[in-house]
Amino acid sequence: MRAMKATSWLLLLFSLPTNRNTERVAVWRRLKKMGAVQIKTSTYLLPDEPAQYEQFQWLAKQIRDYGGDSTLVRAQEIEGLTREKVIAMFNDSRAKDYAAVRKSLQSFIARRKKMGPELAAGELERLTRQFREIRGVDFFDSPRGHDIAMLLRRAEGPRKTRQLQTLDSRQYQGKTWLTRPRPEIDRVGSAWLISKFIDRKPKFVYAPSADAVPDAIPFDMLDAEFSHFPTNQWRK
What we know:
Layout: E1 9-15, H1 21-34, E2 37-40, E3 43-47, H2 50-65, E4 69-75, H3 83-111, H4 117-136, H5 143-156, E5 165-168, E6 176-179, H6 185-198, E7 203-206, E8 217-218, E9 232-235
């Protein structure tokens, strides 16, 4: 999903009787499924969008039906929390969700050759569904989501066998190369390889999607031609 440009926030404040443990767990699970983040005890936050407002409205009513109290607040600003910090909270929460999927995907890739086709297809479908559920509440396009999408493509296996294309590095000199913000070791390594073996005077820029810088060459991004998986070979 594209990153939201939230200008206001929804806060759900609630309390439940101490003997309502089952209901408390049900509320927590619902909040997690919504992608809400906790900022204080029994205070949860979502971007102020119609779908999220409707979800919080429904949950607020459910809490009251459980015998608790709930208040839904719309706020332009939250004292002590800048917009950037709030977005970081959402992205950190999604990163933890994606980490669990990543671990399962890596395990699946390691075991796939020993699995029967039906079992492998079923597990891959489950992991894909889990990824899409997280992606659906990834309101601010966490970089981890792109990493998992690429890993999921790898888990699916080659879509068709094709010969590696040979590219002439002389046609790629002095170019602008684009990747996602906050690169980690794999994309840092890709940038080093580009500057060492392909483009002697590269310029590197960062954006969440390839269409943000149309004239740049995207690498290590979803659906980008260039990645640290073998897709091309080079001629000096």
